[in-house]
Amino acid sequence: MKVIGAGVGRTGTLSLKAALERLGYGPCFHGRHVLDHPDRLALWRDAAAGRPVSWEAVFAGYAASVDWPGAAFWRDLLAAFPAARVILTVRDAGDWYESVRGTVYRMFGDGPAEPRVAEARRIVPGLEVFTAFHRQMIWDGFFGGRFADRDHAMAVYREHNDAVRREVPADRLLVVEPGAGWEPLCAFLGVPVPQEPYPHLNDPAKFWARVAARVAES
After folding, report:
1. Per-domain residue ranges of the chain
2. Which range among 1-5, 148-152, 179-183, 209-213 shows the weakest confidence by mean pLDDT?
3. Could you tell me which CATH number the domain at 3-217 has?
4. 3-state secondary structure (DSSP) of residue 33
5. pTM of the full predicted structure?
């Protein structure tokens, strides 16, 4: 593991994944890859329950990690991969909350499933199991069962970001804000700046398009 993404979901993590892979730090693990490795779900469940796990086994075959669930375990990953560099993606807390509420929480939260969500859970192999894990680790664990409380969720988000800034050595940490582009990332990693535009894969319409594509593939 060369790069640890400590930014939580809906902070540009999918764009960062694409950028890291373009720069040679791939494959890069993203939350959606949990479904690709059902044999590793027991390891994630152990981690969510506070039991020790082999992070080398969890991320076998990957050179980087971004998004939840990895971001929730950034301290463990720092200890497991002491040479890795850390990237914290951030955005305005209010904008972040509305983005999560309208995408990830609607898809994997504990409210009534809307038709497109119910269809996805019915059709996509393993999605119901993944949804249950998502609730255990993120909504019940990370947010203490109170994501629907906007002020509480934003406070958890801010404290997560503040803790990363406090605890990660400055020479190992890059904080990435929206619109930063290639330059700070490439300078941090010591690689040339690509000619093409920085990826932008984070808007809600693209999120739901990916859900529809996954359903169509199943």
Report:
1. 3-217
2. 209-213
3. 3.40.50.300
4. helix
5. 0.91
